[in-house]
Amino acid sequence: MAHTHTNSSDFPHVTVRGYLIGFVLAVVLTVASFWAATSGAFKGENAILALAVLAAVQVIVHVVFFLHVNASKGQRWHAMSFAYTILMSLILIAGTVWVMHNVHMLMMAR
């Protein structure tokens, strides 16, 4: 069985510096999320909104720095499939919340 060896020059967009930047950003966002949840600086819906924003930024950091999905011509199909996955996930989540809300209103609110 022949093994192919890849050289780092085959993937110029993959660098240790890029991984370190992504790691530092991920750690900062994680610490910020824990701080927002435990410090009491945000209350109620503001806490949920702050955590949702931090989570969305965290997802973007992971996609860009670790999955290397971008808008370049070579990554167009990957970016399109990722966008489709996000769209379908949002539709699924919104539909589930909508159904559960209606079930609650029709059965439990009496």
From TrEMBL:
This protein's record includes keyword Nucleus: no
Cellular component GO terms held in the UniProt record: cytochrome o ubiquinol oxidase complex; plasma membrane
Membrane-related topology note: Multi-pass membrane protein
Keyword match Oxidoreductase: yes
Primary subcellular site in the record, as a coarse category: membrane
InterPro entries in alphabetical order: Cyt_c_oxidase_su4_prok, Cyt_o_ubiqinol_oxidase_su4, Cytochrome_c_oxidase_bac_sub4
Transmembrane segments: 16-36, 48-69, 81-100
Any one GO MF annotation of this record: cytochrome bo3 ubiquinol oxidase activity
Location of the protein in the cell: Cell membrane
One biological process term in Gene Ontology: aerobic electron transport chain
Keyword tags: Cell membrane, Electron transport, Membrane, Oxidoreductase, Transmembrane, Transmembrane helix, Transport
Similarity comment text for this entry: Belongs to the cytochrome c oxidase bacterial subunit 4 family.
PANTHER family, alphabetized: CYTOCHROME BO(3) UBIQUINOL OXIDASE SUBUNIT 4
Subunit record text: Heterooctamer of two A chains, two B chains, two C chains and two D chains.
Cited function: Cytochrome bo(3) ubiquinol terminal oxidase is the component of the aerobic respiratory chain of E.coli that predominates when cells are grown at high aeration. Has proton pump activity across the membrane in addition to electron transfer, pumping 2 protons/electron.
Name by which UniProt lists this protein: Cytochrome bo(3) ubiquinol oxidase subunit 4
